[in-house]
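ugh ok fine here u go
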Amino acid sequence: MSHTISPLDGRYAEKIGHLGSWFSEFALAEARVQVECAWILAQEKTGLWPVLTGSQRSVLRELLERFDDGDFARIKDIEAVTRHDVKAVELFLREQLSLPDPNRIHFGLTSEDVTNLSYALMLDGYRLEAQLPLLDGLLRTLRDMAAPLRDAAMPTRTHGQKASPSTAGKEIAVFLERLLRLRERLAAFRFRGKVNGATGNWSALVAAHPDFDWMGFCEGFVEQMGFEANRATTQIEDHDAWAEYLSITRQVANVVLDLDRDFWLYLSLGFFRERADPAATGSSTMPHKVNPIRFENSEGNLELAVGLLGTLADKLCRSRLQRDLSDSTVSRSVGVALAHVHLALSETRAGLEALVFDHERCLAELDASPELLSEPIQTILRTAGVEDPYALLKAATRGRGVTREDLMALVDGLDLPRDVRERCHGLRVRDYLGLAPAICDRVVAHADRVLASPAEEAP
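structure:
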């Protein structure tokens, strides 16, 4: 590991090494074998080839079940001669399957027919088996934080300045709701695929069997693989669905990046504190430090991922004329971008789970900020017909220190109905929370519905 180029394969390998199941040369070769074998089986419906015997099917199934490092090494050995990765898979299958009619292997296909479905298999496998479970874990953490803090008064900042208070639960619920919307889009997402030949016209297949419904057959094959059939393409599947998927993932990354920065600031302001790990070191010279490194690690990885995902989403849906090879080169980095997001979400969740809300600190700041009552007071005074109460409160508070007594004296100096005066006197900054608890409750209920049948927890 000490000689790896990427920190994903070195420093962070223990945390995300399992993603090689979807994003590796081995995974791509295995997926190509899966697609080629599925195509062999599907062709029995065309009548072009004899029906496979039971023993031939057994050999095929055994290969799919046991595909291992030795098989991968053999494919790479063949590729070293052919200089073509998909052709190497075809020749490997000819060796392994020993079919009496080996021409049915890769029959009528262009390499992109196999490759687009192989990437769809890998990306969809990652989405279902790792990405959604990881996101669900983060959503559960946010839900479990928000619910008990629904009423917990917390200072806020707009433009970096003190603003009307909220509750910690509601502010957490903001991120929870944003991610729930994206989770629903991610869960409903479908990749597209194609099997239609060198320039997307089924030309070779039609030449071999002119009277067969190749369009319906191949689109049915794509659906059978679990994907939506792309009805009109060039040599390559256009990757517009990839761009959509990467854009959803990029938006998840942006929301979590926003969350990371906010909680970093909440820790800096003292609204939250982090439970210290006795074995950890915060500074080589300052023993007291407990650094928010989980949020910082996540932020750095997400900044990398956002840039990569944007570049990938833009690039992959562009191809010169009927095709060029640049998409093939770029596709190999999709796993890198997704791995940075995966690592970041794991770090964010661990950071959140180490937090403790500091009720006393928050209440002390709110009680020391009576100027925040200028908003509700001027709004109440509007209902009493006071002339321009906003200007009145602005003159009394903006850019100057003010006490609660000052504000109440201003109220008492006005000709107000008794109930209006009493409403103003009853205001306390720590209780000026509006519907924040109710907002939190609604979002938590939404999370409960979405997570009622969560995907299996990701590592």
